[in-house]
Amino acid sequence: MPVPAFAAESAPIQWTVIDSPNQPPVSTVRDGDSVSAPSAGKEEKKKQKKNPQNDRQSEMEKAMMGVAAKEMPKSADASSEVTRETIELMFAPYRKQSKEEFLSAKDQGLEEVIERAKQIHTQAKAAHEGISLAQRRLVLAVRQMFPEASFEYGHRDGSLSAAEYLSRSQKVSFRQPLFRGGVLWNSFLQERKMLEAARSSYQKVVDDLIFEISKVYFEYQRARSIVEDQKMTLEVVKPQVDISNKKFAENLTSEIEHLNAQSLEGQIEFDYETAKQEFEIARLDLQHYLGLGIQDPLNLKVEYDVDKVIASMPEDDLTTAKIEAQLGSFSQGKTIPGLEKLVDMSYGHRAELRVQMSQLQAARLGEKVRWGGLVPKADLVLEYGVLAEAFKQFTNNPNHKGEFRMMLEVDWNAMGNKLNYTFENDQRAPSVTQFQSGAGTLNKRNSFSVGLLNGLDIFVDVKQAEVEKLNKVVELEQAEKKVLEEVKRAYYDYQKALIQMKSTMKRVQWRSRLRDLAKHRLGQREVEISEYLQAEIDLLGERGEFHTALRDYYSAKSSLNYAVGVSEFLGMEKNG
């Protein structure tokens, strides 16, 4: 089996031969190397050295393996080994957007991130192709309501009773559906509803992507801000810890105070490393949605500045209304509507409900199409043409004679019994045997056929359509219930996020004042360095909680936008 090119470049596999669990490995070899057996006796080694056939055989095997490795095609079956390169090759045709164009831009925000994710999202591409498929099916349904036309040209040279003849013919045929019991029209309406469902499905995929990428984006912002705070705090406390070390070295402070300061510094360093780990995980998640590699940098802007947000808030009478107004939840002075209004908005904008409603309407039309199979169907067939046939001994250029054919076909599935009636008026030009007489044929035919219980499958199709319709009703009810739950949850999560912002902001302001007081008392030598370090750690923890509250606030806004089905319902404020 051929292997990928990158597989051939990988390191050779190392094998270790162990005779028993208690016995150490006796030999270690690599692919392409000769096998040495230290446990073998000296006599066996001498035999191997004296036997030149073994040497020639091993050399031939090496040469054959080398030639086979060179001749293996690079376009190998990727199923033999799953690596990061093989997975990237699978997604490469669907991710044609240049990464350099995205990576070269600076200070990109949520809108640019969402746009990049939409461009490479494979599921969105598949849903968009589903729209194209539904459009083609709609065109086919429209085409079936119009006459079918065909043109036929014939040229024959042959012999009949040892006499050569020639034949030339041309014919145009038309088939017009006269009555189909509403099948064609309902099929057209069904495909139109399926097109609406495909468009709504695409919108649902995009909405889901925006919702997911928004949560990952705000988590990235939170993790990055916490890392910056941890780094700044570590830089601030380092000089104080050095002072504590010097004091302990000069016996100016107790050992307990020195150990306490060392412990607090270690705690800050541990929190800093933990924050960096969380930041790397958040960056990996965001890179996954953006189709970027692990080493690709992210040039994203800072969505908010905690110090500016806190400074802009009044310390007295800090209410959720003032927080919401200061953060700019709505532009142009809008206020958040009530829960009932949000529910009404979700009915008109949620893509899931539109998908299920369109599919339910399509299922109802499909049931009508199945019932139309029990109604008589009538088609009219018209054929116009000319025919020229004659023996070559009489002429090589016979005159063309006109032909005409009209046929009426009626089919009816009467309670599982297929009935067929055909009326045909067929006027034919003279054939080669009738050439001398110059007269053709005229036939009028009436035929009627009955099949006994050969159409019972129509009842199965009707019942299946009814079951599909009921299943769509159930799916619509489930989608409605899910949407209502999401709207209520998003609404109350948004309210809780505002309350959490209020509580966390007050605690940050309180801890900030305690830190300033500890710093002042440290300057006055009223407290030890460890007490100041503890105040810095407490403030750092509250700032981390505030970053989490901001992330929850922005995520709650995204959830509310997703719940009502309007991506810009709650806009993104600028607090940088």
Task: Walk me through what this model shows.
- This protein has 576 residues and is of the alpha+beta class.
- The chain has three domains: 5-74, no CATH class; 154-178 and 366-463, no CATH class; 217-362 and 468-564, Outer membrane efflux proteins (OEP) (Up-down Bundle).
- Helices cover 58% and strands 15% of the residues.
- The chain is built from 15 helices and eight strands.
- The protein has helices at residues 5-8, 42-50, 52-71, 84-91, 99-104, 110-120, 122-143, 183-249, 255-290, 306-311, 320-327, 339-349, 351-371, 457-523, 529-564; strands spanning 14-17, 27-30, 148-160, 163-179, 377-391, 401-414, 417-428, 441-450.
- It has a six-stranded antiparallel β-sheet, with no helix packed on it.
- Strand 6 (401-414) and strand 7 (417-428) form a beta hairpin.
- Helix 14 (457-523) packs antiparallel against helix 15 (529-564).
- It is elongated, with a radius of gyration of 41 Å.
